[in-house]
Amino acid sequence: DAMVIQNPRYQVTQFGKPVTLSCSQTLxxxxxxxxxxxxxxxxxxxxxxxxxxxxxxxxxxxxFQSRRPNTSFxxxxxxxxxLGDAAMYLCATSSRDPHQPQHFGDGTRLxxx
Amino acid sequence: xxxxxxxxxxxxxxxxxxxSLNCTYSNSAFQYFMWYxxxxxxxxxxxxxxxxxxNKEDGRFTAQVDKSSKYIxxxxxxxxxxxxxxxxxxxxxxGSEKLVFGKGTKLTVNP
Lengths: 113, 111
Hints:
The structure holds 2 protein chains of 2 kinds.
Chain A: E1 4-7, E2 10-13, E3 19-25, E4 31-37, E5 44-50, E6 53-56, E7 64-67, E8 73-78, E9 87-94, E10 103-104, E11 108-112
Parallel strand pairs in A: 2-11
Antiparallel strand pairs in A: 1-3, 3-8, 4-5, 4-9, 5-6, 7-8, 9-10, 9-11
Chain B: E1 4-6, E2 11-14, E3 19-25, E4 30-38, E5 45-50, E6 54-58, E7 61-66, E8 71-76, E9 85-93, E10 99-101, E11 105-110
Parallel strand pairs in B: 2-11
Antiparallel strand pairs in B: 1-3, 3-8, 4-5, 4-9, 6-7, 7-8, 9-10, 9-11
């Protein structure tokens, strides 16, 4: 089945230690998104790529970076994680067709020690 | 005023009940309307997607959009314990890739 796959499902890192989360897709979608979701809250968009074009949300901290080396893969880098960055990180994809919705992966749950 | 409002619940119903979940939005530029279901520790799963006023039915689920009132609903008939999850409404403006999510309503269906 075509999918959005996130690895790892669970990630533990130390305060201030850089961490990278990965997302891959077999849907061949142009657009890839990274969301942060904290407990009992709605997903919050961090940034998205429209093909290679990077679009950062105004309130996304500088601590969060992203890379998209090709259509299939996208990475979220957190340079110096703080305790407040503990959350579920969701990757989603969509096509150019405005009548098609976003499809989500199952997320990576990040814990900070 | 928030762009989309959704009652977070929680909502608890007996098995077999009809469930009604609702969102309101403030901007008539929103043209695309989605309902996602999210189980605990999983990503949101698309349930329904529509871009016109009226009803759309898929099995036990019916999505309803009233653009004149800026009101969207999801109805679940014959609710099952497996429907216990958080339901998120999400809306999108024409020409934008970005979704605006409601806070989500946590639903529990009791056997």
